[in-house]
Amino acid sequence: MEMPVIIKKEGKWYTAWAVDVDIVTQGKTIEEAIKNIKEAVELYLEDEDTGIKTDELIIYPLKVDAHAKASSPTC
Question: What are the beta bridge partners of residue 44?
Answer without folding.
Answer: none
